[in-house]
Amino acid sequence: MLTDLPNVLTLSRIAAIPLVVLLVAIRTPAADLAACVVFAIAAITDYFDGKLARSRQQQSDLGRMLDPIADKLLVAAALMMLVGLDRLSPLGLYPAIVIMLREILVSGLREYLAGIRIRLPVTNLAKWKTGFQMGALGALLAGDTAAPILHLGWLPVSIIGETMLWVAAALTLVTGWDYLTAGLHHAQSPPAK
């Protein structure tokens, strides 16, 4: 049901996207910090919506559909803002591309496999990938401009964020390959009778 708490958390992740985009577009240290905070809260809801759905036995087809969509929209919006406003170094563009391509690949595979009634479960490594990815994007949204507000001007936030983005991209390649091989295996299997 749409008003179940897990689905409300998922929908709040989607609702946070315009706010994150607006805050990043303002381009002030305080807005960068606020964008990071809003993004972090939205990212944390990804953990709690699934946990609550399982503990309350409120798992639903709607939730299974909305959750990955909310994740991909949040990540894509953050990456596009970072790239569009030159908040990534030229080298930081490459892990961003890898992450976006993997998201499209997995979405396509899941759509195909759903048509033949096969689900691709989320692996533990994919959860680690998501953690690094969300941490990296949060750090990059804050950037070096927000660090002095917290008296952390000495902390190279952008370098930390891009390093985490590279780790997320490496995990993205591994998990993307795992999903691709699983999808190809099912696509080449004879249809069930």
Q: How does this model look, in words?
A:
- This protein is mainly α.
- The chain has one domain: CDP-alcohol phosphotransferase transmembrane (TM) domain (Four Helix Bundle (Hemerythrin (Met), subunit A), Up-down Bundle).
- It is built from six helices and no strands.
- It has helices spanning 5-26, 29-55, 61-84, 93-115, 124-146, 157-188.
- It is globular, with a radius of gyration of 18 Å.
* Main structural class: mainly alpha
CATH homology group: CDP-alcohol phosphotransferase transmembrane (TM) domain
Order of helices and strands: HHHHHH
Average residue-wise pLDDT: 89
Please, how many domains? Answer: 1
Beta-strand content estimate: under 5%
What composes the largest sheet?
none
Identify the CATH class. Mainly Alpha
Classify the fold: give the CATH topology: Four Helix Bundle (Hemerythrin (Met), subunit A)
Question: Number of helix segments?
Answer: 6
The geometry reads as globular
